[in-house]
Amino acid sequence: MEYGDVFVRDPSSLAELNNTTEYVADSLLKIEESVNSYLEGVKTVLEEQKEAIKEKLDEAEEKLSDAEDDLSSCEASQKKDEDGNYTPSCNCERRAVESARREVEEWKRKYNEACRIVNETNNEIENYRDSGGLLSPPGGKYFIQYLSGEFTDKATESLRGCIDIINEYHEAPANEGGVLTEDIIENPNKTNDDKPLTDYEKAARFEGLSGKVIDKQAQNSRNIADANRVMKCQNCGRLKALCICGNVRKDMKIINTK
Question: Contact, 239 vs 226, CB < 8 A?
Answer without folding.
Answer: no
